[in-house]
Design brief:
With about 325 residues, the chain is an alpha+beta fold. It contains 15 helices and six strands. InterPro entries: Homeodomain-like_sf, RNaseH_sf, Tc1-like_DDE_dom, Transpos_IS630-like, Transposase_5, Transposase_Tc1-like, WH-like_DNA-bd_sf.
């Protein structure tokens, strides 16, 4: 005959069913194959709403509040540092207990998202831009060709320090780390529409206005024929120095290509940023040994992007605009 703690899930369910049928504890014990005391303890526990036995928690509500304050003061501390500070505050608990209490509060250890931090003026401009575009439909956004550069590294293991955050706090300013624009690495230029992706261009040197205009001439113009044929479109790029140079603006005017105005430091509004993320996730298991193998892997992965993925990302633009307005021009969840 098993003890209460030894009852299986099936035995507990059987006891509950037979109890509802009006069977006595003696009959239930015989049918289930356990002691009558085990049946009695299980029934009494369910009646009192007790889920389990065991010693009481060694930490109080006050201790938990102190722990949450410590975590929120610096979310980039590891469990050992947080445990030490909690112990100094007068709480007697083990390191594993500290970790469990943090998990009970909803904190998970995650790789922080990278977001360029916006100053007040930039947030105001982003908000004004979003309000100006809030009535654009998905059909109007489908006429936009989105473009961007992205960095790809041979090593995928160095993700940097992790951050403690709860569900829904990914874009909390205290959970973000600042990014460095265009770090030295293998840089790729790409473009997309709601229908498909355009050709990739691997950038061999620092991107100045002259280099960027060569990219436009040899990669962007062929992409327009591929993605739009002879239909009208609007080209999007950010405010990088090479993009906003006077000679680049003249190049677009000479070619009769309209530009979409774009707020500074707002990659979260650009769906191609999500596309780069999709490509990098698909490459997660790849381990290229050199730059040429890395380029080949990027090309092969880029070619696997489907029209459905592109359409889904561009269709999200109205939601991105709404999120930017709700956040008053700050970081959005995209």
């Amino acid at each position: 005959m098993g003890k209460t703690a030894d009852l299986t899930t099936v035995q507990k369910m059987t006891i509950d069913t037979l109890k509802k049928e009006g069977k006595t504890q003696k009959v239930i014990a015989k049918e289930v194959g356990c002691s009558q005391s085990s049946v009695s303890k299980h029934i009494n526990r369910e009646a009192k709403g007790r889920k389990r036995c065991g010693r009481k928690e060694c930490t109080s509500k006050r201790d938990k509040r102190a722990l949450e304050r410590i975590v929120k003061q610096n979310r980039f501390k590891n469990v050992g540092e947080i445990h030490k500070e909690w112990t100094v505050a007068g709480v007697s608990a083990s390191r594993s207990t500290t970790h469990r209490r943090m998990q009970d509060m909803g904190f998970s250890c995650r790789i922080p998202r990278v977001k360029p931090l916006l100053n007040k003026r930039q947030r105001q401009k982003c908000l004004a831009w979003a309000q100006d575009k809030k009535d654009w439909t998905a059909a109007e956004w489908s006429k936009v060709m989105f473009s961007d550069e992205s960095k790809f590294c041979i090593s995928f293991g160095n993700q940097g320090p992790r951050v403690w955050r709860k569900t829904g706090e990914a874009q909390n300013p205290r959970c973000l780390k600042s990014s460095v624009k265009f770090p030295q690495s293998v840089m790729v230029w790409g473009a997309m529409s709601s229908a498909a992706v355009g050709p990739l261009c691997f950038l061999r040197s620092r991107v100045n206005a002259a280099v960027y205009q060569e990219v436009l001439e040899h990669f962007m113009l062929p992409a327009t024929d591929q993605l739009y044929g002879g239909d009208d479109f609007i080209f999007q790029h950010d405010l990088a120095p090479a993009h906003s140079a006077k000679s680049t603006s003249t190049w677009f005017k000479d070619h009769g290509i309209p530009l979409l105005d774009w707020p500074a430091n707002s990659p979260d509004l650009n769906p191609i940023e999500n596309l780069w993320g999709i490509v990098k996730r698909k490459m997660r298991d790849a381990r290229p040994n050199n730059a040429e193998e890395l380029k080949a892997t990027i090309k092969a992965t880029w070619a696997l992007i489907t029209p459905e993925e592109c359409n889904r990302l561009v269709d999200s633009m109205p939601r991105r605009i709404a999120a930017a307005i709700q956040a008053k021009g700050a970081a959005t969840k995209y």
